[in-house]
Design a protein that fits this description.
Blueprint (H helix, E strand, L loop, with lengths): L11 E5 L11 H9 L4 E8 L5 E3 L20 H6 L5 H7 L5 E5 L4 H12 L6 E4 L3 H10 L5 E2 L2 H13 L10 E7 L1 E2 L2 E2 L3 H9 L3 E5 L4 H10 L3 E4 L2 H14 L1
Parallel strand pairs: 1-2, 1-11, 2-4, 4-5, 6-7, 7-10, 10-11
Antiparallel strand pairs: 2-3, 8-9
């Protein structure tokens, strides 16, 4: 997969944590569900277990999504799997052949845990690495410079600020193929036409999160974003198909 192929001809339906309103988030069942309902891409989160294995869980603590409590990093991978927190390797397999946005929730040991799993998954070039932790993303890029990544939080903010001010944005880091932006901030629209144009001028795909209402899905599809991240992939699949048919 090349950088330009991250720019699809129609808006992608990206299943947030596998589609958190339709299945238990970040589980193998959710990733299979996302594939079954026609998602174009799956988003998932990576953390490290106590024994150094890459596992899939959004929260630092287990309490919201399992029957246990305490930090994910205080439990071995086999025990986490018993609780419904899967290892990364089977999670990637469960949603094959779809591309994946893999969000690194930690820096440090997680990079070493994730990299060999991605390398061995059979579609490494389709695994888009993202993180709100600039240190984690920098460490990944240092280890695997050509691998597809999203812009870091600071890079994304700079792009938005430049677009809003009418300035040319800075060239992206090597390997950057997408910018992932929130739908709104304090009830203000983030993803304006100027932002989309600025990103596309740098050959960056624009993914917007997390969008769960049909009206916003439709508006963003018609605005020209490349992907929408949603907890409702079944609904978004319909919206994306309708938008493509009317274009």
């Amino acid at each position: 997969m090349t950088a330009t192929s991250w720019r699809p001809s129609r808006c992608w339906c990206i299943a947030h944590r596998g589609g958190a309103d339709e299945a238990a988030e970040n589980t193998l069942a959710a990733f299979r569900h996302a594939t079954a309902v026609g998602a174009d891409m799956v988003e998932m989160d990576a953390r490290t277990s106590r024994d150094g294995v890459a596992v899939v869980c959004h929260d630092e603590e287990l309490g919201r999504v399992t029957s246990a409590s305490g930090p994910v990093g205080a439990v071995d991978a086999d025990d986490l799997a018993e609780l419904g927190v899967p290892r990364l390797a089977p999670a990637l397999k469960a949603c094959a052949p779809l591309p994946v946005t893999l969000e690194l929730k930690e820096a440090g040991a997680l990079i070493d845990a994730v990299a060999p799993v991605v390398a061995a998954c059979g579609r490494a070039s389709q695994i888009l690495i993202a993180s709100f932790d600039d240190q984690a993303l920098a460490a990944w890029r240092a280890r695997w410079p050509a691998h597809p990544t999203s812009l870091s939080e600071s890079e994304a903010a700079a792009l938005v600020e430049s677009a809003w001010a009418g300035r040319a944005p800075a060239a992206p880091s090597a390997g950057a193929v997408a910018v992932q932006l929130p739908h709104q901030h304090q009830h203000s629209e983030i993803v304006t036409g100027a932002v989309i144009a600025a990103a596309h001028g740098l050959d960056l795909a624009v993914h917007v999160w997390t969008v769960n209402d049909d009206a916003s899905m439709r508006r963003l599809c018609h605005a020209g974003v490349d992907g929408i991240i949603t907890d409702r992939p079944t609904a978004l699949r319909t919206v994306c198909d309708e938008a493509a048919a009317s274009s």
